[in-house]
Amino acid sequence: MVTKKEIAEHLGISRTAVSLVLNNTPSSTISADTRNKILRAAKDLGYRDVEVSPKLCYVLYDRDANDPRYIADLQIMEAAASRFNYGLIFMNITHAPESLSKLQRSLDTQEIDGYIVSGDVDEVILSMFRMANTPYLLYGMPLRGKNDNFISFDDKKLAYDATHYLITLGHTRIALFMGSLDYNIHQLALEGYREALEAKGIPLDKSLIQISNDENGYELCKRAEMLQLQYTAAFCVNTVIQFGVLQYLQSTGVSVPHDISLIGSGLSELVKISVPQLTTYYVSAEEKEKTVSMLLEIINNRNSERTFSSRVTEFERFEGGTVSPWRQGI
Fold first, then answer.
1. Is the dihedral of CA 253, 254, 258, 263 positive or negative?
2. pLDDT digit string (tens) for 222-246?
3. What is the pLDDT at residue 15?
4. I need a surface site. Which of 72, 218, 239, 258 has the fewest CB within 10 A?
5. Where are the alpha helices (DSSP H) in 63-211?
């Protein structure tokens, strides 16, 4: 029986690309032409989805399936899972009853060995996993339950590190562009930003904190201009916002980073396709790959009362082209 590896070799492309397409994983980095070639080759070669057993599942909850931040994570975890001879499938679940029923059916059949759960996780989806007899791992944040397994990122420290870096380059008028404070990740980013300023004795100017519930960086930056806010740099809580801010500044003739420096969080595809490339702080691929090995440890100890957790506190900096030292006063 033909395998994904054989399809990849037949087409001369990566196995990850073949897996992403055949597992129906959204990925804007795979062209429609390549996707069609993979599907056509799978059909012509007689591929059937029984190749990999057992399987893990990445559940993205209440987030856009094509969000570039999650696509990058999926690619990392699919590659990590394959090294342990596991397949990784993708489920995009919303709070709609029919979508939750789809997840419940998957949990009931127990055909998937373990789940990585990410996105805007709430008590509704948490209760489903807590009641299921299936190993799971919450990815990206620690939550309320004492018995939940999770891997978390210290988003407060990341914001602190990014803001501190701008300060070391001479910036003191630093804007914060962020999403809704209903999300814990944004609350932590605000705390880290504020503490970095306080540590250097820089007064907090609340007008420089701009929020967009739909995380629209273009509109955030436009609003800042209309309010005539004066800043030489900005920390954007994710690359989606950062990319939008860059687009607006460039459309109005503002030079990045000569006039305004931008630093963000994450290493999505937007970082490298941007011109100039985005400067960001991010969790390394090696740290994210540990999610898979931790889930397998949970699976192998599923009858244990022990909980598994990990907290990432050290971050890498991608040296794009959107940050430079402060050159002139405002």
1. negative
2. 999 999 999 999 999 999 999 999 9
3. 74
4. 258
5. 68-83, 97-109, 123-131, 155-168, 184-199
